[in-house]
Structure of Shikimate kinase:
Amino acid sequence: MKLFLIGMPGSGKTTLGLALAKHYALPFLDLDAEIVARAGQVIPAIFLQHGEAYFRELEAEVLRELTARPGSLVLATGGGTPCYHDNLAVLNATGITLWLDVSVEELAARLAAVAETASRPLLATAGPKAKWLNETIAHRKQFYEQAQLRCDTASCTPAAVAAQLSAAGVRMPSAAGLAPGA
């Protein structure tokens, strides 16, 4: 089974994805890291040198390669991944999508660190963070809402997600004898 985490930048996709991969003893991949490895340059450099349209095409290409791989995995996607090139349809067709639904206030607090902003090209060039977050969520929400599962900040723990997956009838492998709801 493949589990795909979607949501805004700063929603915790990588952090939760690593914890879920450990919980289920599955490989963890971060789509942005895979893109960087393929391109040989960091995402801000890709945006600067080639533009967002090129980045989104590369993102879709790498995503399709990862979703076509045999075997189970947990994948943290980029914040905009579900919104371009029918990527959400690919994710929903090849695995389970989980939307990490985090409030604008929480996202702004998480993204307040300079290092976080610098590594996110769309956010780095935006004006006030709260305004950018509100506008971006307004656009992306229509895509995020199509995820098969949804988790808000308060309940996004590996145990809560495992219970949600189990309740939805999703069979994930158990790590070291853990029951899916453990």
The two ends are 18 Å apart (CA to CA).
